[in-house]
């Protein structure tokens, strides 16, 4: 598959009075054409900062991209000037934000907000742009678009506003769409509609999506691949099946175990003890070690590298080292893994016959 | 099984006047019981009136109509101060936003001990301190935390302080209004486990209000589904998930994404269309199966009954 975006060793820091907050500490990942990559993690894990850095939306100062490359179709976005970046932002890469009320301008008509990008990037005339805006509103499923194009954000409901935000993001047919918790502020039924809409549009336009969320149910629904972030690093990355049915990192076990499944009725949930570390002084070794029931001595001393599990699946935990002892994951994770192991067995048998 | 009713809610209504002629019927005729020792889950989308219900039960709002009987006594009847004080001890609340529900100018010790002071439960300064330290330990914090201010804590820790405050006066019934929705996934599990542990140890009854249906199913014994101020379905947690009857419940359940890619690939979402109901008849709350209640018309009732047996 063709790589659309390649992020190499990206580090982002914020200079504060308390010291340098290392929000993102050396992140590597690719996004292929037409796929959806989900980035999951707790608040403060650096997932939003990573994607804001891709769009060069980190306020400077206090923030700065310390090192690393963001290769978008071969161009390093980290080195572009603001002028050059303006040509890409909203055209090749666009973003959907979490809260549709704060990301729309309350004093501007919906139509004008959708048209902005079209006029700026695609050099359309106002009348052309307005026609296209109505089309886009129809595409995202807003009824009576021709009349509502002249309405203001407060005249729309929360779900409809998020549809408008999606329409703005799609206006110039971006190659990459970054969605930062696009459904967190919405009700489940509305969330389901927006997710279906995004998948539908992706099928039509073949764009790539980076989807940031902390809701693993949503991840299972939309993602092709998943990256799990903790304390500014990617600790595990793989296909959606690998992450959900064959997770290797204890943090991923914790995340999956802390969500009740429909058959885990009476046992206690597997809760990760403690809280995430302070990124002003990130701990030595594995940042997750202090909260990790499976931590070994080396976890407190040395940062584990990314170990390869399969061609698409990598995890940064010393448990995958060849000298590491065998450990038993929590019961709920073992149940998840059973199905995966059986399937893998079936597949290999299928190959032989 | 003989179950003892702790809270009895009868035809509860809460209407808000929003203008001279307009009224918002946030809660519109709610009837259900909460049994001793159980967790009753109340779910629904934002704006359906679930939080208003919780707040009306604990008398943060005065009910427009209807009764809330707690241990057989209507809480909305005018009472003398002493009775109210006693009542307030029995029923406590945990709020959604741990950042907004703790006074930023008070030390944790004083926040937790406020109830003790009001009810005169601590005879001496030492006893007060001891009780606060015990409570902090019960909720998984330690006694050094007593002298700090709320801003020094993370969201999950603050929610633990909120829980300690609710526990201080030894209540028998706790209303938890979305106690975990503002927390991170890994912290949610910690708080839910804590709530379950406290329930076992102190024989508590919970009204758990939430929109996260998978967590509600996990923690609740029975679940009520609300839609526009009315209960549309009420059943045992497992029964509700296996046998959803009302089309709104079905649409709600089919909309929850679960952390299971295989399930997600096959999930088919059902949409709820309120116009499918026969509006010529006022729907009533009927029992279609053992302890399984659905809001329906007589015709729908027959249909549901058949459907229920066939499952």
From TrEMBL, chain A:
Q: Which UniProt keywords apply?
A: ATP-binding, Cell membrane, Membrane, Nucleotide-binding, Transport
- List, alphabetically, the SMART domains matched: AAA (SM00382)
Report the PROSITE patterns cross-referenced here: ABC_TRANSPORTER_1, ABC_TRANSPORTER_2
Lipid bilayer topology: Peripheral membrane protein
Known InterPro entries for this protein?
Answer: AAA+_ATPase, ABC_Ni/Peptide_Import, ABC_transporter-like_ATP-bd, ABC_transporter-like_CS, Oligopep_ABC_C, P-loop_NTPase
Pfam families documented for this protein:
ABC_tran (PF00005), oligo_HPY (PF08352)
What are the subcellular locations of this protein?
Cell membrane
Q: What is this protein called?
A: Oligopeptide transport system ATP-binding protein
Q: Which organism is it from?
A: Thalassobacillus cyri
Native organism taxonomy: Bacteria, Bacillati, Bacillota, Bacilli, Bacillales
UniProtKB/TrEMBL annotation, chain B:
- Source organism superkingdom: Bacteria
- Which InterPro entries does the record match to this protein? AAA+_ATPase, ABC_transp_ATP-bind, ABC_transporter-like_ATP-bd, ABC_transporter-like_CS, Oligopep_ABC_C, P-loop_NTPase
Q: What is a GO molecular function of this protein?
A: ATP hydrolysis activity
Presence of keyword Metal-binding: no
Per its UniProt record, what SMART domains does this chain match? Answer: AAA
SUPFAM superfamilies with a match to the protein in the record: P-loop containing nucleoside triphosphate hydrolases
One GO BP on record is: peptide transport
UniProt keywords (A-Z) are: ATP-binding, Nucleotide-binding, Transport
Protein name in UniProt: Oligopeptide transport system ATP-binding protein
Lineage, broadest ranks: Bacteria, Bacillati, Bacillota, Bacilli, Bacillales
């Amino acid at each position: 598959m063709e790589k659309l975006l390649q992020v190499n060793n990206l580090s982002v820091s914020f200079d504060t009075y308390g010291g340098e907050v290392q929000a993102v500490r050396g992140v590597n990942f690719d996004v292929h054409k037409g796929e959806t990559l989900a980035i999951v993690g707790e608040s403060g894990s650096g997932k939003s900062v990573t994607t804001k850095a891709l769009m060069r939306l980190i306020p400077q100062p206090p923030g700065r991209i310390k090192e690393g490359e963001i290769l978008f179709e071969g161009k390093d976005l980290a080195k572009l000037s603001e002028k050059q970046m303006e040509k890409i932002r909203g055209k090749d890469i666009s973003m959907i934000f979490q809260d549709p009320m704060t990301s729309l301008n309350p004093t501007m008509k919906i139509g004008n907000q959708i048209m902005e990008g079209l006029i700026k990037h695609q050099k359309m005339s106002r009348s052309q742009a307005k026609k296209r805006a109505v089309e886009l509103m129809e595409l995202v499923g807003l009824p009576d678009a021709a009349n509502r194009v002249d309405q203001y954000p407060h005249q729309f409901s929360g779900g409809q506003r998020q549809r408008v935000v999606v329409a703005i993001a799609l206006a110039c047919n971006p190659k990459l769409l970054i969605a930062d918790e696009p459904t967190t502020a919405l009700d489940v039924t509305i969330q389901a509609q927006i997710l279906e809409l995004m998948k539908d549009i992706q099928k039509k336009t073949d764009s790539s999506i980076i989807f940031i969320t902390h809701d693993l149910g949503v991840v299972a629904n939309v993602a092709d691949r998943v990256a799990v972030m903790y304390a500014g690093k990617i600790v595990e990355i793989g296909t959606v099946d690998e992450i959900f049915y064959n997770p290797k990192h204890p943090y991923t076990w914790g995340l999956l175990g802390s969500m009740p499944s429909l058959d885990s009725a009476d046992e206690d949930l597997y809760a990760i003890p403690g809280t995430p570390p302070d990124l002003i002084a990130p701990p030595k070794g594995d940042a997750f070690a202090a909260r990790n029931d499976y931590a070994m001595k080396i976890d407190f001393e040395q940062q584990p590298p990314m170990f390869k599990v399969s061609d698409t699946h990598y995890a940064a935990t010393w448990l995958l080292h060849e000298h590491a002892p065998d450990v038993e994951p929590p019961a709920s994770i073992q149940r998840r893994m059973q199905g995966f192991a059986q399937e893998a067995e079936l597949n290999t048998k299928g190959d032989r016959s | 099984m003989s179950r003892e009713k702790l809270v009895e809610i009868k035809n509860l209504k809460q209407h808000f006047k929003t203008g001279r002629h307009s009224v918002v019927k946030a809660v519109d005729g709610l009837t259900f019981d909460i049994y001793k020792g159980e967790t009753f889950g109340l779910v629904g989308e934002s704006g359906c009136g679930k939080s208003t219900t919780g707040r009306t039960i604990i008398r943060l709002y005065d009910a427009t109509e209807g009764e809330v009987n707690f241990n057989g006594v209507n809480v909305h009847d005018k009472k003398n101060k002493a009775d109210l004080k006693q009542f307030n001890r029995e029923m406590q609340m945990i709020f959604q936003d741990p950042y907004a529900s703790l006074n930023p100018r008070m030390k944790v010790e004083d926040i937790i001990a406020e109830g003790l002071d009001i009810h005169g439960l601590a005879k001496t300064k030492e006893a007060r301190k001891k009780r606060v330290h015990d409570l902090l330990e019960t909720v998984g914090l330690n006694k050094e935390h007593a002298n700090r201010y709320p801003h020094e804590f993370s969201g999950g820790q603050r929610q633990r302080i909120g829980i300690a405050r609710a526990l201080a006066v030894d209540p028998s019934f706790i209303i938890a209004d979305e106690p975990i929705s503002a927390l991170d996934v890994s912290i949610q599990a910690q708080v839910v486990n804590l709530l379950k542990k406290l329930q076992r140890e102190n024989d508590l009854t919970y009204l758990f209000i939430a929109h996260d249906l998978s967590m509600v199913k996990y923690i609740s014994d029975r679940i009520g589904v609300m839609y526009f101020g009315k209960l549309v379905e009420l059943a045992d947690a497992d029964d509700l998930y296996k046998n959803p009857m009302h089309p709104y419940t079905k649409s709600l359940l089919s909309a929850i994404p679960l952390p299971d890619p295989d399930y997600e690939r096959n999930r088919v979402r059902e949409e709820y269309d309120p116009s499918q109901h026969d509006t010529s008849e006022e729907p009533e709350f009927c029992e279609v199966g053992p302890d399984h209640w659905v809001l329906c018309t007589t015709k729908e009732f027959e249909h549901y009954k058949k459907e229920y047996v066939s499952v």
